[in-house]
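Incident log, structure service

09:12 report received: a user says their structure output differs between two submissions of the same chain.
09:20 pulled the input from the user's history:
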Amino acid sequence: MSIPSLGRAFAQGLRRLLHLLPALAVVGLSACGGSDDAQYAHVRLLNASPGYDSLDLYLGDDRQAAAIATGAVSSYADVDPDTYDTSVRRADSATDLATVERGYSEDTSYTLVAYGWEGSLKTYQLTDSEDSPGSGLTRVRVFNTATDAGTLDVYLTDSDTALTDATPIASSVAGASLSAYKNVDSGSWRLRVTGEDDATDVRLDLSSLALAGNKVVTVVLTPGSGGVLVNAIVLVQGGSATAYDNPSARVRLVAGSTGNATHSAVVAGTTLTTGTLSPAVGAYVLVNAGSAQGLDLQVNGSRLSTTTVSLSAGGDYSLLVHGASTAPQLTVLSDNNRLPSTSSQAKFRLVNGAYNLAGGLTLNLDYDALASDIAVGSASSYKAVTASTGSTMTVDLSGSSLASWTDLTVTAKGIYSVFVLGDASTPTAVLRRDR
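09:34 re-ran on a clean worker, output below:
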């Protein structure tokens, strides 16, 4: 072999040896019981979105978590410390739902929380680096992803403690915000969530929540389907996620049958109203949710044949009783009390509970139709409108006005239902602000 050839062979061998040195070093560390995890960042995905039942997490072009169900958290993926376009997609989709450039540091763990309804997914990055509180204690904080529900207070109490005698562990937690940590004794607690500064406005009541000792926990509040009640996910730093559906729904009675009939309603053992004269729109009442909850609905002392009702966890419902008082009918309406997607807007719908109408109803606001041809015993979809003052609203039947409001103020973020109840000869229109 010539001298130049020997030189090339030596150079190639040297390059191969240099290429192998990092791998040899890793083998040496492993043989000594060491670990190379510290050179990586660690990232996982929590799916807290009720709008997407399965999500993937991408950093750049690489998928780091796949098909994470609502309420579940992935295992940690090891990634090189760097800044990445961090994206969330529907499972097995190529389309980004939310993308934010985020940085990841060496030897640090992160949980990316995906939240929000379909079409408005957002993400929030938690850094999983809080020190453990020690034996017999749990360190707890609250993350409010239920932006529709507004600002909330969160309590951990004994099972029998009245909220009026309790102090929240997190108060005035606005939507998309995170509270400070608080240490509590580990064990079983009653978790309750209320509207801000209103202990009577209960949004979630879990009778038994187990908090393990020497753990760091984030209680992630998620929205119920109706927009007012909330659910919860208990996320353990570095550990599991446990989802808790709201055990309740909110239900109200809309007494719309003819002749000022007397209405009474009991749902799942909870009384909504007794002796209410039509026409009237009752207040929402918390009742047990479930697929076949007992219903005792009476008009003028006669019980309707419908004896069960299906109520989704965290939902809002109106029980619309309409028709002749001698033969009343029931329509169960699912109420969408989520806030408008734009803060300067309000939402309206029309509910037709009038008897003996010859045609459908139309709702107009400032001469624009918000709902058209709404049949008896049904409700329109919700329509977003711009907040206003001095507006005119009418309910029309075949071009003739049945009811009207003038100099009306439409409040931003307001949610309104217009009910038409009673007999077609003398219908009663009720404008109710639901939120």
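09:41 both user submissions now match this output. Likely a transient worker issue. Closing.
09:42 reviewer note: The chain has four domains: 38-125, 131-245, 247-335, 339-435. Confidence is low (pLDDT under 50) at residues 1-35.
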